[in-house]
Amino acid sequence: MQKTWRWFGKNDPITLPMLKQIGVEGIVTSLYHIQPGKVWSKEEISDLNEFINTHGFTWSVVESVPVAESIKFGGEDRDELIENFRQTIVNLGNLGITTVCYNFMPVIDWIRTDLNRVLPDGTSTLYFDKIKFGYFDLKILKREGAEKDFTTDELSKIEELDKTITQQEIDELVYTIIIKTQGFINRDIVGENQDPVDAFNTLLRLYQGVDKNQLRENLKYFLQKIIPTAEKYGVKLCIHPDDPPFQAFGLPRIVSSEEDIEWILSAVNSPNNGLTFCAGSLSAGIHNDVTKMAEKFVKRTHFVHLRSTEVFDNGDFMESSHLEGRGKLIDVIRIFEKENPTIPMRVDHGKLMLDDGEKNYNPGYSFLGRMFALAQVKGMMAVIKNSFEQ
Ligand code: DNO
């Protein structure tokens, strides 16, 4: 697999020459300044592409071209927005940038409640705390019907938390879920000068009446219009699984299980309609057997995210070391190295370690933590490749 790295553009404090030194072979990035729904012009794409090339890299994967909300809920302007997405695919294909990751998660991309859960060794990791999440849903958003998503025991723990949580902790939770985790990948979902909770509730309301079947149909509608162009320009689209792979905020999620992925790949049965195999996201669902899914979808995968999680009985999950957890990265790497050895992979997320904490990196995207994980992944790859030669 090609070893790529998610780089956040020319202002990223982790520079391309730094990435050369640690053995990165390709770049994963996006035009972060362009709002979802707008066309990426040839000029803007080629400006960034040339910058990457000048530093001796190729732009291996676009992660992501964001899908405008209205395409997902099926708004009146969706055809126009799909046409803009299609034009972006044409412009990327013409410049030889041919692997494009995207996701179809309504309103919110990935969800974490803690960005710095400190581990016994002093490093810290990303964490999803079911009770804090429930607190956000029930007590902060005050979403109607939210209690149905929690067990009686969880509801009583949420009540307990209500008695002790401070205003500062509440503000931090809102900032983490709505602003910090979303802002750097999904642009600003709230808009300037708005109350984030109000803005978030407004976004949730856009999906009233959109159930799982409707969301699937909206994805199929989008793919039917985009895939013929992707085929013509040689662009491989790869949908990212839901993170975490279960329903949240009463919103449907449609890329959470083996059955979901099968549905999508056969809805428009073209090699250009593919998958981003994110072992981290998939492993956070106890219903998912990551190794089995890698075996099943290896040929329709165009991009791999190597990350792992540990899931606890109380519904929490934590991002674990790349050598441990439910992500089974040794198996995943073996399967991909054997069946699809030229595809790009990136180490996804890393812990905060040593002086990472002082650098204000995007959550999950530390330098030393990711470099450490990349070294572990390179080691696994080397051993696996060596075993093929025996
Ligand atoms: C978070 C990422 C996601 C992912 C997008 C892909 O760190 O895994 O934001 O990039 O969902 O579209």
List the topology elements:
Elements: E1 2-6, H1 16-21, E2 26-29, H2 42-54, E3 59-63, H3 69-73, H4 78-94, E4 99-102, E5 114-118, E6 124-128, H5 130-140, H6 152-164, H7 167-186, H8 196-205, H9 212-233, E7 236-239, H10 258-267, E8 273-278, H11 279-283, H12 290-297, E9 301-306, E10 309-311, E11 317-319, H13 329-339, E12 344-347, H14 368-389
Parallel strand pairs: 1-2, 1-12, 2-3, 3-4, 4-7, 7-8, 8-9, 9-12
Antiparallel strand pairs: 5-6, 6-11, 10-11
The chain binds D-mannose.
What does this structure look like?
The structure is a single chain. By secondary structure, the protein is an alpha/beta fold. It folds into two domains: 2-110 and 210-389, Divalent-metal-dependent TIM barrel enzymes (TIM Barrel); 114-205, no CATH class. Helix content is 44%, strand content 14%. The chain has 14 helices and twelve strands. The protein has helices spanning 16-21, 42-54, 69-73, 78-94, 130-140, 152-164, 167-186, 196-205, 212-233, 258-267, 279-283, 290-297, 329-339, 368-389, and strands at 2-6, 26-29, 59-63, 99-102, 114-118, 124-128, 236-239, 273-278, 301-306, 309-311, 317-319, 344-347. Strands 1-2-3-4-7-8-9-12 form an eight-stranded parallel barrel, surrounded by five helices. It has a four-stranded antiparallel sheet with strand order 5-6-11-10. Helix 5 (130-140) crosses helix 6 (152-164) and helix 12 (290-297) runs parallel beside helix 13 (329-339). The radius of gyration is 20 Å and the shape is globular. The two termini are 19 Å apart. The chain binds D-mannose (DNO). D-mannose binds next to strand 4.
